[in-house]
Amino acid sequence: MTPSLSILIVTYRSGADIDTCLALLTASRIERAYEVIVVDNASGDGTPERIAARWPEVRLIAETRNHGFAGANAVAYAACRGATILLLNPDAYLRDPHAVAAALAHLDAHPDVGAVGLRLVFEDGRHQVGDAGFEPRPLSVAVHAAGLSGLFGLRGLYLSGRQARAGGPVAVDWLCGAFLMLRREAVEAIGGLSSPLFLYGEDVDWGCRLRDAGWRVAYLPDPAVVHLQGGSGSTRSPRWLDGLASVYALRNARRRLSSPAFFAVPLWLGFTARAAAYGIAGRLRRRPDLLRRARDMRRFATHVSGLGQGEAS
Fold first, then answer.
1. 254 and 213 in one domain?
2. What's the rounded Cα separation, in Å, for the pair 128 and 121?
3. Does residue 111 sit in the same domain as residue 249?
4. Tens digit of each residue's pLDDT (9 = 90 or more) over 183-192
5. Where is the domain boundary, 196, 227, 258?
6. Residues forming a β-bridge with 120
7. 84 near 4, Cβ under 8 Å?
8. Is 13 found in the same domain as 45?
C-alpha cells in the first residue's frame, strides 16, 4: 500500500533521543498509511546501527557524510512516497498521540495551506520561542530586539508567547523544522527541500518561499509537541544567529534597508539591554537562572556584533 504520509527524521548523534521519538510516533493515532524514513548524517556514534537493530520497520538511509539539515531532508524527500510530508526532529516527542492527526486534519480542511506546525514546548510545558515566526525584515528585527513582539499587533522574528496562546490557527511566515508538516505539491512549488543553508534557518527559508509561491503557512497552538531543543548540540549556542543572518541576507537582497547593520545593530542593542536587565534582576533577587540568561544575552550580543563586522569587512 502506498503511504499517504511520509515522516522524515534526520539524525546526527541522536542515540539518546531517537528511541523515545520513534516509540511515541508508533503510539500516535495516525489513521492512515504512513512510512518513516530516517537519514543519518554520518553520526559515527552507532546511531544508525541502533535504529537498524531496534526499529526494523523504519527505512534507514545511513549517509557517509553530513549533509546538514536541509541536505539530509532532501535525501529523505527523494526517497519518500507520501502526498503529505512530516519533518520530525529526533528530539521532538509526540506525547500527545493526537498531534499528527490534528495537523493532518488542518491540511485536509484548508487546501490553500501548504505547511502546518504545532506549538513547541519544553518538558515543563513552557512555550518554546522559535517554533514559528515572521519574515526577517528590518522592522521584524527591530520589533524583536525591542521585545515588542505581539504587542499592538507588531510582528517580530519569532511568534511571542502571547501570540502562541491564540484560540485558533495563526497565520505565520515560517515554522520550526522540529515538527513541520508539508503538502507535497507545496514542496514541489519551491523546488524541493534544498536550501543554501547548512544548519539553522532552513525552515525560515522554506516558509518564506512557500509564502512567495502563494501558499499559506499555519501555526496551531494546540496540541503541543515537546521539543528538547538541542538534542544534537548546545541549547545556548549562538549559532542560530548565523542562520537568521543568512536568511536576512537572502530575503533582503536588492531591497532598501538591506544593509547587514539593520540586522546586527538592533539585535546587539536588544541583547545588551536584556543582559543588563537580567543581570540586575538576578543579583537583586538572587536568581541563578536570571544570571544565566544575562550571560546568554551577552554571548548573543558579542556574536551578533561579530556578524556585523564580518559583513562590513
1. no
2. 5
3. no
4. 999 999 999 9
5. 227
6. 225
7. yes
8. yes
- Split into its structural domains, the chain has a count of 2
Give the separation between CA 34 and CA 82, rounded to whole angstroms.
7
Task: Find where cell 507520501 sits.
Answer: 82
Task: State the virtual CA torsion across 16, 20, 22, 27 in degrees, nearest 10.
Answer: 180
pLDDT (tens digit, 9 = 90+) per residue, 56-84? Answer: 999 999 999 999 899 999 999 999 999 99
Q: Is-contact 177 86, C-beta < 8 A? A: no
- Per the CB < 8 A criterion, the answer to whether 209 and 242 are in contact is no
Other Cβ atoms closer than 10 A to 138: 18
Find all residues with CB under 8 Å of 76, minimum gap 6, and list them: 6, 8, 9, 10, 37, 38, 39, 61
For the chain, the C-alpha Rg in angstroms (whole number) is 19
From 163, 193, 227, give the residue that closes a domain.
227
**pLDDT score for 309:** 56
Range of the domain at 293: 239-312
Q: What phi and psi, each to the nearest 5 degrees, are found at residue 222?
A: -145, 135
**Residue 68 grid cell:** 546538514
The span from the CA of 49 to the CA of 91, in Å, is 18
Alpha carbon distance 217, 214 (integer Å): 10
Which SS3 state, helix, strand or coil, does residue 8 take?
strand
Cell of 276: 543588563
What's the pLDDT score for residue 308?
57
Give the distance, in angstroms, between the CA of residue 110 and the centroid of all CA atoms in the same chain: 22
Average pLDDT over residues 117-128: 93
Distance CA 131, CA 177 (A): 8
Per the listing, cell 515554522 goes with: 175
Instruction: Please tell me the distance from the alpha carbon of residue 157 to that of residue 140, in angstroms, as a whole number.
Output: 5
Helix (H) or strand (E) holding 200: none
